Known about the structure:
Layout: H1 8-19, H2 25-33, E1 54-55, E2 61-62, H3 65-75, E3 82-86, H4 92-98, E4 103-108, H5 111-123, E5 129-133, E6 146-151, H6 160-163, E7 166-176, E8 183-191, E9 194-203
Parallel strand pairs: 3-4, 3-6, 4-5, 6-7
Antiparallel strand pairs: 1-2, 7-8, 8-9
Amino acid sequence: xxxxxxxxxxxxxxxxxxxxxxxxxxxxxxxxxxxxxxxxxxxxxxxxxxxxxxxxxxxxxxxxxxxxxxxxxxxxxxxxxxxxxxxxxxxxxxxxxxxxxxxxxxxxxxxxxxxxxxxxxxxxxxxxxxxxxxxxxxxxxxxxxxxxxxxxxxxxxxxxxxxxxxxxxxxxxxxxxxxxxxxxxxxxxxxxxxxxxxxxxxxxxxxxxxxxxxxx
Length: 216
């Protein structure tokens, strides 16, 4: 196999994203360029490009590729944007964001996940990403504002103090609904007149929990 050829699973990965409606060429190119296999556990690498979520450390998951691409597309990212991500996990979503935005701050409550993601992102040259160990539901007041906010864990409702960190013209996307079961991916847009809310698709995410984890 020559260096410019793709293995069949990666070709199917791209085809699946297109078939499911991802049309932003910058997002598709980024999904192709970011090596997903580096963000999953070694035992799951053979399935890294399947369109399914996979388990990672600390009882968390890496979202299925379609959900990552869909949420990224909904953010309508531009190179000058400053992005906040709540829930670093493996660092895969942050790696995707880093190629499309100017700066990314990603917050993780598990030290083990934060440290591992930081090392992966540094190795990949994602130098515009800062990984912070912290409570994504109770951020310090001096963080922000942001052009875009993405939450990668289920929230029963979106905290007002998170919405307040959005610039005018900013977009926030989060899975909203019960911690156990199905959530609705919800997009908020801050306009001069206030907040516009749109419900998008049904998803399943692990719960967004308060505080920094005492262990791990």
